[in-house]
């Protein structure tokens, strides 16, 4: 019974995407980064994080939350003003000033949201964690995922004469700092690329995402970059 439940859970947890859609492939990897880095090892059995002793980060969703709040507020203002103008104050001479103010506020909030999205750029994960060795250390990590390069052609060709393509390489950009003494002492400050391999190494021919392989590559690469 337990084995059957485990098998059912494993089947429902499978992630299968369209192999021909690079946007979907990249989005799957990007989403997995936060899921892996913020997941507690005990919640996932014998995961790579538990095996390697990788402490989880606490993810920050500041940019996402800010844009959601701005979008909700802007929409509420426009909808509320429209309802008021349609049902309460129907005369245009009297409601035009309020409508104009609502449009201006909506434009400003939308502009702030666009600026925030631009500032976030390609960042897919921002997180912090605290560790205790001889002292309390605070680590801050920002991971960006640049656009995928084009697939590379191999010298050899397939049996049908068509060129063999190597899937695009998936590379992350990281900014990592480690501080102690309540942020006053800087222990480490790194900004570098983190190549994990090409997409074909953790996506099967059927498009299934093999997360354990991706997780092992990600955590090993980060620990090496951190100097741990």
Automatic annotation (TrEMBL):
Keyword Electron transport: no
Membrane-related topology note: Multi-pass membrane protein
Function statement: Component of the signal peptidase complex (SPC) which catalyzes the cleavage of N-terminal signal sequences from nascent proteins as they are translocated into the lumen of the endoplasmic reticulum. Enhances the enzymatic activity of SPC and facilitates the interactions between different components of the translocation site.
One cellular component term from this protein's GO annotations in UniProt: signal peptidase complex
Pfam families for this protein: SPC25
TM region(s), chain numbering: 66-87, 99-119
Alphabetized PANTHER family for the sequence: MICROSOMAL SIGNAL PEPTIDASE 25 KDA SUBUNIT, SIGNAL PEPTIDASE COMPLEX SUBUNIT 2
One GO-annotated biological process of the protein: protein targeting to ER
Cell compartment(s), UniProt: Endoplasmic reticulum membrane
Keywords assigned: Endoplasmic reticulum, Membrane, Transmembrane, Transmembrane helix
Name the record gives this protein: Signal peptidase complex subunit 2
Recorded family membership: Belongs to the SPCS2 family.
Naturally occurring in which organism (per UniProt): Sporisorium scitamineum
């Amino acid at each position: 019974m337990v084995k059957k439940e485990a098998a059912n859970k494993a089947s429902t947890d499978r992630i299968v995407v369209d192999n021909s859609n690079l946007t979907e492939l990249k989005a799957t990897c990007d989403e997995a980064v936060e899921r892996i880095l913020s997941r507690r090892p005990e919640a996932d059995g014998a995961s790579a994080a538990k095996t390697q002793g990788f402490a989880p980060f606490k993810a920050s969703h500041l940019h996402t939350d800010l844009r959601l709040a701005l979008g909700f507020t802007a929409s509420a203002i426009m909808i509320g003003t429209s309802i008021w103008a349609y049902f309460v104050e129907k005369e245009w001479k009297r409601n035009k000033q309020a409508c104009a103010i609502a449009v201006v506020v909506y434009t400003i909030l939308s502009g702030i949201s666009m600026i925030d999205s631009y500032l976030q750029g390609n960042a897919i994960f921002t997180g912090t964690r605290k560790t205790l060795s001889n002292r309390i250390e605070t680590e801050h990590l920002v991971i960006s995922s640049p656009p995928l390069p084009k697939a590379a052609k191999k010298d050899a060709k397939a049996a049908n004469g068509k060129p063999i393509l190597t899937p695009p390489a998936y590379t992350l950009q990281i900014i990592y700092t480690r501080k102690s003494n309540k942020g006053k002492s800087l222990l480490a400050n790194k900004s570098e690329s983190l190549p994990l391999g090409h997409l074909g190494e953790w996506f099967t021919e059927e498009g299934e995402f093999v997360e354990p392989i991706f997780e092992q590559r990600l955590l090993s690469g980060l620990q090496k970059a951190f100097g741990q």
